[in-house]
Write a structure and sequence with these properties.
Blueprint lengths: L11 E7 L2 E6 L10 H16 L5 E6 L17 H20 L4 E5 L3 E2 L1 H7 L3 E5 L3 E3 L13 H20 L3 E2 H7 L4 E3 L4 H13 L3 H11 L1 H4 L2 H14 L3 H11 L14
Parallel strand pairs: 2-3, 3-4, 4-6, 5-7, 6-9
Antiparallel strand pairs: 1-2, 7-8
Length: 268
């Protein structure tokens, strides 16, 4: 692929299943495609490659095995301030690049999508979810601000009332319910998710590329104009990484118990 997409060691797979179609697969199925810290930078660079890849006209992104992507692997060590800032910068570049890319992006949500995974799924131009896929915004459950996409995309997709309910509570959504409220484009039986995504991708790859790209550029102005909201939420999330609530959430996960957030405990 002419030197493109050479950033990792197998945790993200890139292939060309059809003329003009690029398939990106997050590839840690044994951990439900949860991300190791270096993968944030790797994926940011992959999207930058997509932008300058002349062979690609449409992108499909999915997860290996039974999950789409469940966010950062909680077994990773607690990030240092420097690591948290590096992740924030990688995320800033990823989201701005995804919104700037004029090639259509399709997410094939084959299973659980949480946090970063849900961000990747919803920022695609077309999102196709398994009817029984579990979608969770998730950030507040681990004591951090919903900082990687929620303030940017959720209100535009489902309105502020639904946004605040699902983002503040981190309540689970099925793919079928997500389609009903407009959070995803389509919900189909699990075995049809990737074939349907590739079918749509092949169709778009043979369409008028100028018309498709100009249309996407115009529509994405709704999102690019809101990027300052994303930058604020992302900065607040990074601040939360240094907080007691986040540390308690990670410790509780390791000990397999519900967290007791210090900020929710009344002072005596």
């Amino acid at each position: 692929m002419s030197g493109l997409y050479q950033h990792g060691t197998g945790n993200v797979l890139v292939e060309r299943p059809a003329d003009g179609v690029l398939l990106i697969t997050i590839n840690r199925p044994e951990r439900y495609n949860a991300l190791l810290m270096p993968m944030f930078e790797e994926l940011s660079q992959i999207w930058a490659d997509v932008e300058r890849d002349d062979e690609t006209r449409v992108v499909v992104v999915t997860g290996a095995g039974d999950a789409f992507c469940t966010g950062m692997d909680v077994r990773e060590p607690d990030p240092t301030p420097e690591a948290a800032l590096a992740m924030l910068e990688a995320e800033r570049r990823r989201i701005s690049t995804v919104l700037r890319i004029e090639k259509p992006i399709i997410s094939a949500i084959n299973g659980p999508a949480v946090g970063y995974g849900l961000s990747t799924a919803l920022l695609a131009d077309i999102s196709i979810a398994a009817e029984d896929a579990v979608l969770i915004e998730g950030h507040t459950k681990v004591g951090v601000t919903a900082g990687d996409h929620a303030a940017l995309i959720w209100p535009l997709l489902v309105g502020m009332a639904k946004t605040k309910y699902y983002v503040l509570t981190s309540e689970k959504l099925s793919g079928a319910e997500a389609e009903r409220i407009g959070l995803v484009s389509l919900a189909v039986p699990r075995e049809q998710v990737l074939p349907r995504a590739l079918e749509v991708a092949a169709q778009l790859a043979q369409g008028s590329q100028q018309a498709l790209r100009f249309t996407k550029r115009a529509l994405n102005m709704w999102l690019t104009n809101a990027l300052p909201q994303h930058e604020l939420s992302g900065a607040l999330e990074i601040l939360d990484f240094a907080g007691a609530d986040y540390r308690e959430a990670r410790q509780a996960f390791r000990e397999k118990r519900p967290p007791v957030f210090p900020s929710a405990v009344s002072a005596n």
